[in-house]
Amino acid sequence: MECLGSCLTNKYSEGQPGKRYYGGNEFIDQIELLCKARALTAFRLSSEEWSVNVQPLSGSPANFEVFTALMQPGDKIMGLSLAHGGHLTHGHKTENKKISASSIYFESQAYYVNEETLLIDYDRLEKEAAEFKPQILICGASAYPRDFDYARFRKIADSVGAYLMADIAHYSGLIATQQMNDPFPHCHIVTSTTHKSLRGPRSGVIFCRKEFEERINFAVFPQL
Questions:
Q1: What are the start-end ranges of the E strands in 112-203?
Q2: Whether residue 113 is found in the same domain as residue 10
Q3: For 177, which of 46, 64, 169, 184 is 20 to 30 Å away at the CA?
Q4: pTM score
């Protein structure tokens, strides 16, 4: 809390460590590089395969930065219905109104849990994804008290040529401690907050496979 309340929190640090648009970032650079290294270590990731951006202000901006990096306005996303445990930023809209910016700037369609088992209906998702053909398939939730079949998600994503993105904000600590399934072997992108079950300060983080590093970093800054 002392660190967050210091002048460090008011210092603009646009760009990447060593390539800032403002001077006086020597110590910010060290802190950011340490944070990125610890983020990869926490999830047992190789820096040769994965890149991480720790600059997003929270989980919602992190998600929109991914959409901006990988899609064009009007492209399609699929996410779990908000009423079935999903999150606003996964394309939430009602029959009469587009609620989230992710449904305003992109075409969104929800998928659902099975009303009897209350588990994600993967068979229905596979069928509807084949018809909708999203550019990004989002797995993850804010109120779904079960684990995820990331291998099945990846199979569905591959079948329609979609990127697979996991939003693990609400249970990332349980993944880091290996209490829940690991999304990283199956996903192209993984986003999280740092202030929920990771128990850190308020922020967001984007993990991406190295092939997306430049696009993700550019979307974070200068695009957004």
A1: 136-139, 163-167, 189-193
A2: no
A3: 64
A4: 0.96
